[in-house]
Each structure stands twice: as structure tokens, then as C-alpha cells.
């Protein structure tokens, strides 16, 4: 049986908080990939990035589901259940070009 996410009902339409990783932009750091919180719209960097801001946001807030966001890729990840989430057409459009990409 395939693992299932128990948090998909909490996926919301959100407005991205920044045109890149919010915290990396503030400190002048680079990122590898972007992740979008599907609860509040926070844009953070992935676990392959030096600061792992998307995971830090999850740890600080408990918001479980992120979306692959550079460009929107149609998948999500649930930090709690540790499973991929198929977002299908329920992706978040970008507000504009990503200013920096490693």
C-alpha cells in the first residue's frame, strides 16, 4: 500500500511571500531550489541549499506541506508524513522571475 499524506485537506491557495527564498534574500545568500509553504505562502530554500529555510519554516510553524516552486513542478512534500503529494493542476504561479539561482 502506498503511503498517504494525512494533511492534504489543509493545502491552501497562497500568495508567495517573496520572489526567492525570503531569508536568503535578506542575508544575501544563494539557494539551490525553492519551496513554497502551502499553508501561508512562505518561500524558502530546499534541503540542498546551505540554510534549509523551508525546513526551518516547518520546524518553527508546523506547516506541513511545501510545493516545489522554481518553476511550479506539480508536486509537494509533507514534512510530517514524509511523503510526496501530487498537486496536479493545483500549483501556485510565480509572481515574477527568480532573481538568483545557483
TrEMBL record:
It comes from the Bacteria. Residues 3-102 form the UBP-type domain. InterPro entries: Znf_RING/FYVE/PHD, Znf_UBP. The keyword Hydrolase applies. Keywords: Hydrolase. This is Ubiquitin-hydrolase Zn-finger-containing protein. GO terms for molecular function: hydrolase activity; zinc ion binding. The lineage of its organism: Bacteria, Pseudomonadati, Pseudomonadota, Betaproteobacteria, Burkholderiales. It holds the Pfam family zf-UBP.
Amino acid at each position: 500500500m502506498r503511503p498517504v499524506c494525512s494533511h492534504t485537506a489543509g493545502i491552501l491557495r497562497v500568495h508567495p511571500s517573496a520572489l526567492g527564498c525570503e531569508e536568503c534574500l535578506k542575508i544575501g545568500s544563494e539557494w539551490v531550489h525553492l519551496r513554497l509553504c502551502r499553508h501561508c505562502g512562505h518561500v524558502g530554500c530546499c534541503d540542498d541549499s546551505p540554510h534549509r529555510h523551508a525546513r526551518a519554516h516547518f520546524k518553527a510553524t508546523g506547516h506541513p506541506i511545501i510545493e516545489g516552486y522554481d518553476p511550479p513542478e506539480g508536486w509537494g512534500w509533507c514534512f510530517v508524513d514524509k511523503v510526496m503529494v501530487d498537486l496536479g493542476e493545483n500549483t501556485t504561479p510565480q509572481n515574477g522571475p527568480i532573481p538568483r539561482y545557483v
